[in-house]
Amino acid sequence: MKQYYLLFIILFTLVACQKNVTSEKGDYAYFGGEIINPNSDFVVLSKSEEPLDTIYLDDKNRFLYKIEDLTTGFYSFFHGGEYQIVLLEPRDSIMFRLNTMEFDESLVFTGQGAKKNNYLINMFIDSEAEYENVLKFSQLTPLEFEQKLDSLRDEKIKKLETFYAKNGDSEVFYKIAKDNINYNYYASKEIYPFAYYGHNELKNLESLPKHFYDYRKDIDYNDTLIKDYYPYNAFLRYHFDNLALAEHFKHSDDQYFKRNSLCYNLDKIKLIDSLSTDVDIKNRLLYHYAIRYVNSTENIESCDKILKEFLSRSSSEPNKRQLAYLTESLKKLKPGYDFPNIKLIDYNNSELVTSSLFKGKPTVVYFWTYAWKGHFIESHNKVIELKQKYPELKFVGININIDETKNWKNALKQYNFPFENEYQFANPHDAKDAMALNSINKVMVVDGKGKIAISNGNMFNVNFEEQLLGLLNK
């Protein structure tokens, strides 16, 4: 295997070098890779959520692809339900190697332009590991929290400066890496009030030090270079949560934070429209908040008001159609309505319909995908716990992945989860539309007669078990 891999690198380098000698018009880059334990036989390459091409793996699970007329920035590659990003600049020749069993952790880049991407992927992994520490810091007073956070940022910037001085990489990389540090820092400060004060005391926002949000004056709400970069997008979402909260408290009698308040979410949509002018950034933020509200509210009628506000401000026709369709689908999934009769495939590859599952006892229906490994594991562990506490209930897991059935089975086997009452959608696209399934956290509860009892639950919410008890005590 090592010999094959070495040969591939040599051939890859020779091709890249040969192309560099040749005079060609336009900017371009080469991108290739090797995938260990592939979940499918192809990789999808995209730019700003627009697919560029579907690239098929060869018989050694490798590929090599030339991107013509390259636009400097982030490109995403998708494989088997998971994706990552790569920074590409003119004349880059980058190859990656990864194992799908540890997608992010195993990802390594080689070739021209590899160092900057390895640095960025390591920053991503380090940030995930650092998250728990930041949450602990959030229990400190504002000044103590700032001191801890400032120290972390200073250490990262020094490390970046050393790397940049040694490797002399591109200015684009330096800007992006520094943005990564800063926007993670800003996001931590936006999250802080929710962790420190708690949702019932967020009126105390005004007691934060006056300088606490000084960085806000430097925010670029329309940074097209990093619009596809997770730290930037995550920050903007936390930031608009906070801005809308401050705006909401100005005209609301609410004494504590209500995430699903219609008024609060309408304030958010209006703020995004007023501050963001880049079409892609604005449309993504508008859709994120509108779809999140629709997916989590128990007041289905209020969805029409969110939809109306969204339609008046978004310029994305696909997003408009999707949200309108979702809103209409949700109206058919109200408590008291029949659960949609959808085709499923069981562990033995037999086909059945959902109506055959809901006979005699209330049933909790939850959904999962191995693309979200954390949720997949946590939801199944939570169900094991709930089964012991509520033997009167039946629990049904439905995998929503769009691929061969063996992959969802392998995921269950890998983590030793039971196969009983585990299914996969026979026609995932149609099923997800019928179920208005846009959030993997969505849980539905069906009574013993096949009628919907809870249409939009979440097993990780503190009140979920209260809802279950209410159903059992009827």
Structure summary:
The chain has 474 residues and is an alpha+beta fold. It has helices at 2-21, 114-137, 142-167, 171-196, 230-251, 262-275, 279-296, 303-313, 317-331, 373-389, 405-414, 428-434, 464-472; strands spanning 29-36, 42-47, 50-56, 62-67, 73-79, 82-88, 93-99, 108-112, 343-346, 351-353, 363-368, 394-399, 422-425, 443-446, 452-457.
Task: Explain what this protein looks like in three dimensions.
The chain folds into 4 domains: 2-112, Immunoglobulin-like (Sandwich), CATH 2.60.40; 114-256; 258-331, no CATH class; 343-472, Glutaredoxin (3-Layer(aba) Sandwich). It has 13 helices and 15 strands. It has helices spanning 2-21, 114-137, 142-167, 171-196, 230-251, 262-275, 279-296, 303-313, 317-331, 373-389, 405-414, 428-434, 464-472; strands at 29-36, 42-47, 50-56, 62-67, 73-79, 82-88, 93-99, 108-112, 343-346, 351-353, 363-368, 394-399, 422-425, 443-446, 452-457. Helix 5 crosses helix 6 (262-275), helix 6 packs antiparallel against helix 7 and helix 8 packs antiparallel against helix 9 (317-331). The relative contact order is 0.07.
